[in-house]
Amino acid sequence: MAYITCxxxxxxxxxxxxxxxxFPNDLPAEQGNTxxxxxxxxxxxxxxxxxxxxxxxxxxxxxxxxxxxxxxxCGNSFYHNMMYGGAxxxxxxxxxxxxxxSMFRFPAKREQNFIxxxxxxxxxxxxxxxxxxxxxxxxxxxxxxxxxxxxLRYKDTPGVREVFAPILGDSLALPKTSDLHAIAKKMAAxxxxxxxxxxxxxxxQDHEPYQIVxxxxxxxxxxxxxxxxxxxxxxxxxxxxxxxxxxxxxxAIDYFLxxxxxxxxxxxxxxxxxxxx
Length: 277
Prior knowledge:
Blueprint: E1 2-10, E2 15-23, E3 37-42, H1 50-55, H2 58-65, E4 67-72, H3 88-101, E5 113-118, H4 120-131, E6 138-142, H5 148-152, H6 160-168, H7 180-188, E7 197-203, H8 212-226, E8 231-236, H9 242-257, H10 261-270
């Protein structure tokens, strides 16, 4: 296995961007040296790409499945081309793949590329994955802030303007191109084989202060009504924390690859312990 930290000069952002990667370079001989797929992992607000490797078992899950992981640092951008800040959407979709391709040979097919994230990154994963299904074969949101209109409804709430004005502008107006409900409707109009796989997860106790359950309930109602070709929602007891997001990544890998990986991991934990005398 290889852990790689890159500092890439981005012309789009006019700065150096830190990108953490995991590469399964010790695959079994019968599998060869070609990774099975790539998952881009997006971080939450105030977080960074390192957290995926320091707070979860992401690398071990990737090793089990022959996956490349890419975790870029994208600040507090909500993965947008910001009104007052960097063009992170363009960086992620257009510039970063070109920069990485010049150094590494990763699977390039759409059905081998997936994107997932937690909290702000959950929004980002759906924002990019649903609007660019030609790039990503699947997208997954873990405890995602997936209904920005709900968050912006209370513009005078402390912190709301500080978070969203750099992204959307001083008016805090949410354009349809940033509204996941509108993006999902446009995506669902495409042929089934052009639609990405979609996964939503959240903890049932994830309420304050971001109303994550309510946000995900609202998006679920929209997606359920649209009947997309590949959609799944999972919920279980938990809050806005790494225990939920680590488990969510297992479910995402299982869903994207359709390989029964989640059942295997649950089986590992359910194995009976044998006491020694």
